[in-house]
Amino acid sequence: AQSVTQPDIHITVSEGASLELRCNYSYGATPYLFWYVQSPGQGLQLLLKYFSGDTLVQGIKGFEAEFKRSQSSFNLRKPSVHWSDAAEYFCAVGAGNAGNMLTFGGGTRLMVKP
Amino acid sequence: DAGVIQSPRHEVTEMGQEVTLRCKPISGHDYLFWYRQTMMRGLELLIYFNNNVPIDDSGMPEDRFSAKMPNASFSTLKIQPSEPRDSAVYFCASSSGQSHIQYFGAGTRLSVL
């Protein structure tokens, strides 16, 4: 079965600084990978996804993520963080043989200092 | 499209009462998922449906929980009787075919006193 680890429970960055959120997955084949964002009191919103092809994927709100098969990682990055990026971020993995079911990581809560 | 619609947004009830949460998926989507989110356990998949048929309910915590999908545009999650430990945010999500992209509703915050 697949699994996802987000090693950082909380991260604090200054506004304007760069950001990298870590995600490691466990799956025997090429996974489908996702990053979702959850603002307080809201549902999860898709930031970006990787299915195949170019390992660097662009998403909404200026986010990008890079799939590294050798490291089983799919880290999320943003060059300059805005105060509105403060939220919880979830990495998820899907397996092609499990319908549309996703396995989510525990989440990373991002705080942005002015 | 209106997105996934959940109701109610907030529910406060007393222990022992029956609670019914509702979900309307995005039109045309053939997968529907119910999740529970708590601080202690994070985001847990409870059950999911494909074409209105329950596929995997291994995440349903116990027999007090039941879920139905009588048609493609409506699903319910019922807790009977409710207990304080059921307090959580419950999310519904839907997706289409093999896209693997799940679209989430805004959630129902349940408080059982």
Describe the structure.
The complex is a heterodimer of chains A (114) and B (113). Chain A has 114 residues and is mostly beta strands. Chain A contains no helices and 12 strands. Chain A has strands at 3-5, 10-14, 19-21, 24-26, 32-38, 44-50, 56-58, 64-68, 73-78, 87-94, 102-104, 108-113. In chain A, the strands form 3 sheets. In chain A, strands 2, 5, 6, 10, 11 and 12 form a 6-stranded mixed β-sheet that branches. A 4-stranded antiparallel β-sheet of chain A has the order 3-9-8-7, with no helix packed on it. In chain A, a hairpin with a 7-residue loop joins strand 10 (87-94) and strand 11 (102-104). Chain A is globular. Chain B contains no helices and 11 strands. Chain B has strands spanning 5-7, 10-13, 19-24, 31-38, 42-50, 53-56, 65-71, 74-79, 88-95, 103-104, 108-112. In chain B, the strands form 2 sheets. In chain B, strands 2, 4, 5, 6, 9, 10 and 11 form a 7-stranded mixed β-sheet that branches. In chain B, a hairpin with a 7-residue loop joins strand 9 and strand 10 (103-104). The mean pLDDT of chain B is 94. The interface between A and B is medium-sized, with 21 and 24 residues.
Please specify the SSE layout and strand pairing.
The complex is a heterodimer of chains A (114) and B (113).
Chain A: E1 3-5, E2 10-14, E3 19-21, E4 24-26, E5 32-38, E6 44-50, E7 56-58, E8 64-68, E9 73-78, E10 87-94, E11 102-104, E12 108-113
Parallel strand pairs in A: 2-12
Antiparallel strand pairs in A: 1-4, 3-9, 5-6, 5-10, 7-8, 8-9, 10-11, 10-12
Chain B: E1 5-7, E2 10-13, E3 19-24, E4 31-38, E5 42-50, E6 53-56, E7 65-71, E8 74-79, E9 88-95, E10 103-104, E11 108-112
Parallel strand pairs in B: 2-11
Antiparallel strand pairs in B: 1-3, 3-8, 4-5, 4-9, 5-6, 7-8, 9-10, 9-11
